[in-house]
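Quick one, tokens below. Sequence please?
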């Protein structure tokens, strides 16, 4: 059973909204969406910085002043050794060195650096991943390290901004944790317990799930204060050894901060210039210490939000109209824009582009469809209602004529003593006008019954010749009044169906041809057999129609401008009935016409043999 709400308009509306929703969701995984999401993330980063707190680490820097005082880049191992020697007096808790020590240098320099490392407690060295090969520190250095961490930043960033750091890096045979994570583990004195969803170090649970790349990315909560992490250069420490006391009990990151000597500088979401790589690792360490993590929303939750926005957009313009609908849609759009900001405050990074695109596209599609399609349907319905009212007015006016004749004749017969001949004339008039009135009523009943599919067609066989000749006998007198010749050509073929209805259809076509043809013209009726089809045509030399009128000629209550201008009365329902009768008989209508040259209406029906059939069948 067909549901009343499951119609073409509903399916079309749902299809357009669904297509817009799919486009919005899919667009969220494009490069453009990634750029917009990153820009929105950086903006939110400005709006909602991490809560201010006391720093838990320091940086021992090799800056420009250190290079100028202690030698060029070739002396960096000497500088590093001197820094570790001076740092030992402060007894730091953890020392992380952000310098790859994979190459051999002058033996004397390496020996001094090795001695300094041996005296350093909880030392963390770095390794660098190149392709599938690790550049590990020399064994003479690595043997004194409590841990070796990788120095990789955000290698997947499209714009060079380091927003996150992979906590884990793997090759086929070797895996390393991030330098900042190893330093945090040693500072806590705990071991790393890992699961697919997170990492646990003591009581701290780090929400870094293993991704498809198996790198466990974690977003770094950079401090807005560029001087948040205290920094002392090796030169300053060398000039004032008492500064070593500042490092007591601290986690210290040692690395190059010189603007001219290091290539390891990265951009942050604040975009206030680049910071050295050693500071990025220190900022990661501070993020772990604060425990204020940013968690990426799952793809499922993003798609679910987009689906919800699309469904709400569709329902808004189904359940509401006018300003309430547009205000509700505006509220939905605002919610789509605001939700990422509200979630960011709760530590959840929610994409900006996909929800926004889904909401805007579905709202625009739903609003446009309802505005244009529904308005057009409403306008068409209003036009049909007006035509129907016009037709009813015309029919009621026409019904008055036979009713007046019947009423007047019956009153005369009852009031006066009329002659037999006069009484017979009035009786014949009453009979004719009653039949005329009955035909009008039957016509409207046929329209409704055919429209609702309630018409029961008889199933009988008859020849095209019989059908046409019966109609010709009734139409020729009408043609003679206008001096129009009504003739027939070839009449062949056998039809099957309801002869009474088919006779009505053919008669209607003939009377229309006569009605809209001028004097001294000809109407020709022909029927020929073509394969398994019968083509019955009615051709006139009348007013004709243009292409636009031909597309609407079978619409209920439609009349062409030329038909209305001709002065001939009509309801515009005759051809609608004809088309429905032919359709229910398994046929179709074909029309050719030229304005001022006439028209040819052709009924194309299945041809049948003389075999017997049941009397009737329901349609």
């Amino acid at each position: 059973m067909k549901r009343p709400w499951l119609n073409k308009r509903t399916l079309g509306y749902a299809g357009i909204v669904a297509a817009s929703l799919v486009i919005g969701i899919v667009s969220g995984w494009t490069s453009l969406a990634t750029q917009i999401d990153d820009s929105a993330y950086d903006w939110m980063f400005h709006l909602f910085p991490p809560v201010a707190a006391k720093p838990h680490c320091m940086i021992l820097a090799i800056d420009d002043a250190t290079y100028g005082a202690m030698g060029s880049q070739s002396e960096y191992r000497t500088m590093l050794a001197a820094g570790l020697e001076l740092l030992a007096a402060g007894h730091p808790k953890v020392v992380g060195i952000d310098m790859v020590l994979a190459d051999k240098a002058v033996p004397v320099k390496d020996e001094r650096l090795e001695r300094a490392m041996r005296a350093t407690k909880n030392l963390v060295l770095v390794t660098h991943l190149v392709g599938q090969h690790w550049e590990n520190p020399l064994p003479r250095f690595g043997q004194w390290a409590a841990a070796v961490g990788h120095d990789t930043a955000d290698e997947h960033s499209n714009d060079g901004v380091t927003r996150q750091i992979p906590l884990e890096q793997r090759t086929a045979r070797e895996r390393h944790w991030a330098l900042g994570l190893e330093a945090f583990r040693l500072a806590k004195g705990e071991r790393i317990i890992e699961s697919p969803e997170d990492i646990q170090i003591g009581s701290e649970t780090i929400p870094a799930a293993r991704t498809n790349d198996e790198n466990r990315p974690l977003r770094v909560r950079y401090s807005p204060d560029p001087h948040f992490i205290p920094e002392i250069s090796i030169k300053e420490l060398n000039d004032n050894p008492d500064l070593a006391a500042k490092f007591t009990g601290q986690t210290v990151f040692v690395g190059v901060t010189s603007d001219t000597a290091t290539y390891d500088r990265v951009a942050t979401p604040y975009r206030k210039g680049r910071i050295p790589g050693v500071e990025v690792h220190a900022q990661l360490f501070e993020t772990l210490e604060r425990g204020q993590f940013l968690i990426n929303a799952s793809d499922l939750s993003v798609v679910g939000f987009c689906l919800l926005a699309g469904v709400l957009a569709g329902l808004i313009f189904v359940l509401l109209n006018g300003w309430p609908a547009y205000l509700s849609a505006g509220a939905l759009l605002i919610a789509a824009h605001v939700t990422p900001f509200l979630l960011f405050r709760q530590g959840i990074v929610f994409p900006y582009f996909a929800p926004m695109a889904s909401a805007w596209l579905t709202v625009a599609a739903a609003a446009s469809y309802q505005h244009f399609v529904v308005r057009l349907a409403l306008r068409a319905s209003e036009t049909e209602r007006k035509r129907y009212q016009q037709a009813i007015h015309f029919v009621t006016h026409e019904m008055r004529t036979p009713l007046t004749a019947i009423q007047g004749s019956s009153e005369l017969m009852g009031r006066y003593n009329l002659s037999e001949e006069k009484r017979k004339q009035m009786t014949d008039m009453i009979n004719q006008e009653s039949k005329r009135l009955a035909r009008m009523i039957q016509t409207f009943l046929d329209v409704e019954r055919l429209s609702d599919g309630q018409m029961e067609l008889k199933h009988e066989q008859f020849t095209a010749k019989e059908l046409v000749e019966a109609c010709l006998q009734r139409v020729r007198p009408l043609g003679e009044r206008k001096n129009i010749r009504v003739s027939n050509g070839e009449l062949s073929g056998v039809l099957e169906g309801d002869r009474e209805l088919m006779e009505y259809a053919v008669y209607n076509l003939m009377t229309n041809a006569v009605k809209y043809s001028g004097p001294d013209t000809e109407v020709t009726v022909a029927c020929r057999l073509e394969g398994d089809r019968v083509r019955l045509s009615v051709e006139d030399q009348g007013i004709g129609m243009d292409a636009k009128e031909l597309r609407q000629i079978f619409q209920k209550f439609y009349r062409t401008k030329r038909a209305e201008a001709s002065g001939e009365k009509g309801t515009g329902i005759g051809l609608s009935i004809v088309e429905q009768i032919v359709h229910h008989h398994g046929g179709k209508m074909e029309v050719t016409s030229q304005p001022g040259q006439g028209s040819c209406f052709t009924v194309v029906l299945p041809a049948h043999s003389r075999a017997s059939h049941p009397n009737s069948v329901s349609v």
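The CA atoms of residues 99 and 127 lie 8 Å apart. Confidence is low (pLDDT under 50) at residues 611-619.
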